[in-house]
Amino acid sequence: ATPTALLVGTGRGAQLGILVKGPEVLESTRRVTTVVLDKTGTITTGRMSVVDVVPAPGVAVEELLRLAGAVESASEHPVAKAIAARAASQARVEDFRNAEGLGVTGVVDGVPVVVGRPRLLAQHGIELPTELATALAGSEALGRTVVAAAADGVAIGVISVADTVKPTSAEAISRLRALGLRPVLLTGDNQRVAAAIAAQVGITDVIAEVLPEEKVAAVERLRAGGAVVAMVGDGVNDAPALAAADLGLAMGTGADAAIEASDLTIVRGDPRLAADAIALSRRTLGTIK
Ligand code: ADP
Ligand code: MG
Which residues line ligand 1 (CB under 6 A)? Predict the structure, then answer.
C-alpha cells in the first residue's frame, strides 16, 4: 500500500469521526477477525442511576446511603457517581482507597466502610446475610449492577444501579457481523448482568467477572486461539487490554488513558463507528491493491 492512499483513508476516517493514530493502523485493522467490546461506557451509556436500595435488617436507608455515598463520592466510577448522586452525603471520607474492578473503601466518621462487589466484602472477611444475598441475586437477574456495603465489618445493605444500552449498540453488533466479525462482550460486571446486556444487543459470546488485569489475559487467550483481536473500550481499566489487542479502539468520550493506549479513537462514542472503521480500512486497502 502506498502511503498516499493510506492517508486518503485516514482523511475519510476523520470525516466519519474516526481518528487514526497513524496510516499503518489501517493495515492491522484489515486483518481483524474478533471484536472484543467492553460493556460499561462502550455498549452501555455508562450513565447509571440508583434503582433500588435494600438495607440490612435494622439499618435505616438514610444511614446506608450516607456511609456508602460518602465513600463513593471520592470515586470516578460510573457506579460510584450514581450512588454519590442519589445519596448526596455530606459526610467526609478519610483513607479512601480504590480496589480496581471491585469497589472502594474508606473511613467515614471513624467507621471503616466497604462498598463494592460481594467479592470485595469477602476479601475483608464480611459475609452477606441471606436477606441481602437474595435481594442481590434478584436484582442481578434483572440486568442490574448490584453492590454491597458494609460498615465496621458488617454488611449494611445492597444498592442496585441500572445502566442503559446505547441506542446504536445493537446496530453496531449487526454491522460487525455483516463484516464477518465475531463480537465478544468483556466486562468486570457479573454473569447475569453481562448476559442480560448481551442479549439486548445480539452478542452471544460473553466473558464476565474479569478483573481489569484479567482483561489483558482474556484478549491474549483469544489471540492464542488464532483470532486477530480488536478491542473497543472507554475506561482507564481498559487501557492495558487496548494496548494488548492487535487493534485498540477507544471511545472518544472515554478516559485519556484509554485513548492513549489505542490505535483508533471513535469520536462520538458511537460503537457503530468501530464497524465503520474496519469497513473503511478494508475499502481503502482494497482500492490500493
Ligand atoms: P466494566 O468492565 O463493566 O467497565 P469495572 O471493571 O470498572 O466494570 O467494574 C467491575 C465491577 O466492580 C462493577 O460492576 C462493580 O460491581 C464493581 N465496582 C467497581 N468500582 C466500583 C465502585 N467505585 N463502587 C462500587 N462498585 C464498584
Ligand atoms: Mg468501561
Answer: 38-40, 72, 75, 77, 79-80, 101-104, 115-117, 145, 147, 187-189, 212, 235, 237
pTM of the model as a whole: 0.79
ipTM of the complex: 0.93
Q: Ligand 1, from 71, 115, 117: best to mutate by most atoms within 8 Å of Cβ?
A: 117
Ligand with an atom nearest the CA of residue 102: 1
Evaluated on CA atoms 123, 129, 132, 136, the torsion sign reads positive
Query: What is the model's pLDDT at position 27?
Result: 79
Cα 97 to Cα 75, 122, 159, 199, 205, distances in angstroms? 9, 16, 19, 34, 33
Q: What is the pLDDT of residues 157-190, one digit of tens each?
A: 999 999 889 999 999 999 999 999 999 999 998 8
149 and 169 belong to one structural domain: no
Domain boundary among 136, 162, 188: 162
Strands 229-233 and 247-251: parallel
Max Cα distance, the chain (Å): 71
For residue range 104-145, what is the model confidence (pLDDT) as tens digits? 999 999 999 999 999 999 999 999 999 999 999 999 888 899
76 alpha carbon, closest ligand: 1
User: The CATH number of the domain where 180 resides is what?
Assistant: 3.40.50.1000
Domain that holds residue 273: 3-45+165-288
Q: How much of the chain is helix, strand and coil, in % rounded to 5?
A: 45, 25, 30
| Cell numbers for 196 | 442480560
Of 106, 133, 162, the one marking the end of a domain is: 162
Are 136 and 148 within one domain? Answer: yes
In the predicted structure, residue 1 carries a pLDDT above the cut 50? no
